[in-house]
């Protein structure tokens, strides 16, 4: 196996997963995902996070290739207990029985519950240090990025920040491992989709972490998913800062749920009128065909959101219901909202969307539009009016 050096004696020992279809059994990953782990081969040997259990054999082979079969692992640092990063803990313990596991109090509570491990633990708190020889590690507690126990590990010698799930991305590492080795055009969208669906709910904790880490000199960010950052460090930190403050661009995301096309027709009218009023970034999604993770990612990018639903058994179309629950759960803030929909014999979709609008506290740009049956002059005019109002407010905001 080829060794991937981050510095003279720090190595990437991650693995690629091209088989799993749904990350966390929810989010599509058509281009796979990587699980990044790192090993520091100093006077003392330390592993920083592990990998998902299905890849443990490949992972152990990589570790042995670097340190040889005559050395042991002294420390296993767990920045994040989620099983895609702690899945190899038991295997590490079996191969290196004297390894001390480094984590915080909440780490160890989870470690015992997940794997039944409660011995040979090295407790660290915010600001604590660990000497390995020429390398000295410092630990920063970053809770809720995106679990309560999450922390980051900073190597003070080589200025490497092992950031856990923060600054990560969907997508495998296909040859290139560092951002400057990769065509980042693919990862740009996947980084935002990863942030918006995995980390985004905890925006205030992102801001706290960014402030805590702001004084560090960082030459490399080594996350547990996606590329290792060494050229685009400022770029990824700026994106996290912007997204966690809900800064958006001029544009509109239109999402609808429809059975027979009437609600879709309304979406098309709205989209066309937005374009005629100077809005270029318009994305229209059928909630039955596009996974919510892609929609939510676009909502993080664009200020305007217009949601439409037909009625379904006196309620909202089920796929739209699922989408708005995810939006509510994600705590997304500071958008402009419009609501529309249709029904045949009894309403429900628009009513539920209006309730969502009241709960989400976004700026409402016009009264909701609801039509019975197919498109008619009144509903057409009201869809046009909604689009014009949205375009006007966006132009005012981004002037």
What do these coordinates show?
In the N-terminal section; belongs to the zinc metallo-hydrolase group 3 family. InterPro entries: Flavodoxin/NO_synth, Flavodoxin_CS, Flavoprotein-like_sf, Metallo-B-lactamas, ODP_dom, RibonucZ/Hydroxyglut_hydro, Rubredoxin-O_OxRdtase. The protein has 399 residues and is of the alpha/beta class. The protein has two domains: 4-244, Metallo-beta-lactamase, Chain A; 249-394, 3-Layer(aba) Sandwich (Rossmann fold). The protein is built from twelve helices and 23 strands. Strands 1-2-7-8-9-10-11 form a seven-stranded mixed sheet. Strands 17, 18, 19, 20, 21, 22 and 23 form a seven-stranded mixed sheet that branches. The protein has a five-stranded mixed sheet with strand order 12-13-14-15-16, with helices on one face. Strand 21, helix 11 (349-360) and strand 22 form a beta-alpha-beta unit. It is elongated and about 80 Å long. The termini are far apart. The mean pLDDT is 96.
Keywords summarizing the entry:
399 residues; alpha/beta; Metallo-beta-lactamase, Chain A; Rossmann fold; 2 domains; seven-stranded mixed sheet; 12 helices; metal ion binding; Flavodoxin/NO_synth; electron transfer activity
How is the main sheet built?
Answer: 7 strands, mixed
Give unreliable regions as ranges: none
Whole-angstrom Rg: 24 Å
Instruction: Label the structural class.
Output: alpha/beta
Task: Count the E strands.
Answer: 23
**Within the CATH hierarchy, at the fold level, what is the topology of the largest domain?**
Metallo-beta-lactamase, Chain A
Question: What is the count of helical runs?
Answer: 12
Helix percentage:
25-40%
Q: Report the CATH superfamily of the largest domain.
A: Ribonuclease Z/Hydroxyacylglutathione hydrolase-like
Q: Please tell me the CATH architecture of the largest domain by its name.
A: 4-Layer Sandwich
Mean pLDDT over the full residue set: 96
Family: In the N-terminal section; belongs to the zinc metallo-hydrolase group 3 family.
GO molecular function, one term: oxidoreductase activity
Pfam family, one: Flavodoxin_1
Domain Flavodoxin-like: 252-399
């Amino acid at each position: 196996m080829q060794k991937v050096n981050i510095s003279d004696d720090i190595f990437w020992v991650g693995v690629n997963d091209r088989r799993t279809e749904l990350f966390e059994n929810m989010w599509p990953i058509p281009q796979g995902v990587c699980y990044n782990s790192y090993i520091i081969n100093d006077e003392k040997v330390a592993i920083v996070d592990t990998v998902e259990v299905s890849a443990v054999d490949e992972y152990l082979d990589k570790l042995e290739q670097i340190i040889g079969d005559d050395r042991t692992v002294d420390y296993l640092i767990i920045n994040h207990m989620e099983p895609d990063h702690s899945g190899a803990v038991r295997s590490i313990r079996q191969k290196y029985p004297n390894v001390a596991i480094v984590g915080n109090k909440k780490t160890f509570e989870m470690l015992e519950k997940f794997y039944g491990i409660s011995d040979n633990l090295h407790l660290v708190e915010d600001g604590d240090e660990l000497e390995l020889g020429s390398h000295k590690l410092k630990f920063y507690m970053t809770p809720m990025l995106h679990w309560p126990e999450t922390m980051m590990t900073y190597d003070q010698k080589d200025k490497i920040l092992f950031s856990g799930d923060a600054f990560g991305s969907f997508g495998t590492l296909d040859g290139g491992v560092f951002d400057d080795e990769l065509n980042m055009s693919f990862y740009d969208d996947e980084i935002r989709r990863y942030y918006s669906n995995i980390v985004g709910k905890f925006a205030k904790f992102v801001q706290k972490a960014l402030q805590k880490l702001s004084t560090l000199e960082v030459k490399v960010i080594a996350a547990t998913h996606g590329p290792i950052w060494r050229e685009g460090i400022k770029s990824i930190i700026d994106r996290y800062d912007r997204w966690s403050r809900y800064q958006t661009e001029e544009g509109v995301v239109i999402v609808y749920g429809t059975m027979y096309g009437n609600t879709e027709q309304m979406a098309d009218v709205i989209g066309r009128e937005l374009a005629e009023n100077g809005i270029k970034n318009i994305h229209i999604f059928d909630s039955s065909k596009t996974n919510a993770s892609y929609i939510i990612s676009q909502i993080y990018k664009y200020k305007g959101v217009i949601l439409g639903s037909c009625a379904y058994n006196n309620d909202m179309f089920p796929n739209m219901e699922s989408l708005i629950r995810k939006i509510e759960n994600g705590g997304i803030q500071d958008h402009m909202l419009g609501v529309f929909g249709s029904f045949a014999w009894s309403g429900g979709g628009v009513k539920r969307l209006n309730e969502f609008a009241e709960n989400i506290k976004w700026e409402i740009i016009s009264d909701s539009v609801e039509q019975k049956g197919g498109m008619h002059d009144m509903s057409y005019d009201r869809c046009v009016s909604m689009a014009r109002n949205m375009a006007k407010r966006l132009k005012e905001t981004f002037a």
